[in-house]
Amino acid sequence: MTDKPSNDSDLRRRFGPTALITGASDGIGRAFAVQLAEHGFDLILVARRGEVLQDMALDLGTRFGVDVRVLAMDLTDPTSVPHLMSLTEGTLVGLVVAAAGFGSIGPFLDQDMASEINMVDLNCRSVVELSYGFGQRMKAEKHGGIVLFGSLVGFNGAPLSATYAATKGFVQSFAEGVAAEMRPHGVDVLSVAPGPVGTGFAARAGMQMGQSATPELVARSALAALGRQTTVRPGFLAKFLGWSLAVLPRAGRVRVMGIIMRGMIGKASVIPK
Ligand SMILES: NC(=O)c1ccc[n+]([C@@H]2O[C@H](COP(=O)([O-])OP(=O)(O)OC[C@H]3O[C@@H](n4cnc5c(N)ncnc54)[C@H](OP(=O)(O)O)[C@@H]3O)[C@@H](O)[C@H]2O)c1
């Protein structure tokens, strides 16, 4: 006995039958996996921790009667996306959620360079490659959806999180550009630009976050916005901070963002005087 809905949802009709989610083992990607399984999507789950994904596959497959496939891979590896594209050839992936990503905080010159480059590879390069590979297939099928992750910090520079904010600015700009190009082909592209979200992200980045949205709210808002708008700011805080910052000139926004990031820094000793 499964919880699979007897009728396909509208979302599955528009973007099904299969959704591929990167960063599916945790946080926002995991919330997408659960909600898309509830909508009856078959899933391809991508992240490094294969065992976590296998447990999810068993759970979601049993609860919702959907087919769940696991691809354990490190998306900072330049061979990973070409490999992923060949492994998914022949599967009708109508929705891609590129949630894998990470950030860092602290003065740029104090960061570990290899990690910063990995961040650019994961947050930007893998996103471009996935959008290209699946965008081509979706264009041929004349339907599809691609969900990318910007951030509240992606609309201008952010002192103390310079590389991360720049990767998110890249994704925001990329999403806006390809959304306009792909729309005539029946492919919807969405940039999700949350404020703080309560996942393991902040701890991994060395950040401290106060009030935050839930990953479930982020996934729900994104799925409701897909095909209706190009950017969604999920939750009150992302909207409120976004609107408040929007009235400032760009230089003012950078200054305020520096103050916000200083408040989020986990290790006080690395704050520049
Ligand atoms: N949380 C926030 O406050 C926030 C705010 C704005 C935007 N965002 C963006 O939202 C997206 C999701 O964030 P989140 O909060 O869900 O983060 P999270 O909880 O830290 O989850 C990150 C996911 O990415 C996967 N991942 C990390 N490195 C990877 C790699 N090299 N190859 C493949 N998968 C990798 C992780 O799985 P494995 O460890 O198993 O690989 C995990 O599933 C990110 O793009 C983030 O920048 C987050």
Q: What is the residue-mean pLDDT, rounded to a whole number? A: 93
The ordered string of helix (H) and strand (E) elements is HEHEHEHEHEHEHHEHH
- How much strand? 5-15%
Computed over alpha carbons, the radius of gyration is 18 Å
- CATH level-3 fold name: Rossmann fold
Shape: globular
CATH class: Alpha Beta
Low-confidence stretches: 1-8, 268-273
The span between the termini is 61 Å
Bound molecules: NADP nicotinamide-adenine-dinucleotide phosphate
What is the CATH architecture annotation? Answer: 3-Layer(aba) Sandwich
SSE layout:
Layout: H1 10-15, E1 18-22, H2 27-38, E2 42-47, H3 50-64, E3 68-72, H4 80-87, E4 93-98, H5 113-141, E5 144-149, H6 162-182, E6 187-192, H7 201-205, H8 215-225, E7 231-232, H9 236-246, H10 250-264
Helix pairs in contact: 2-8, 4-5, 5-6
The structure holds NADP nicotinamide-adenine-dinucleotide phosphate.
Please outline what is shown here.
With 273 residues, the chain is an alpha/beta fold. It has helices spanning 10-15, 27-38, 50-64, 80-87, 113-141, 162-182, 201-205, 215-225, 236-246, 250-264; strands at 18-22, 42-47, 68-72, 93-98, 144-149, 187-192, 231-232. The site of NADP nicotinamide-adenine-dinucleotide phosphate has 30 residues, from α2 and α7.
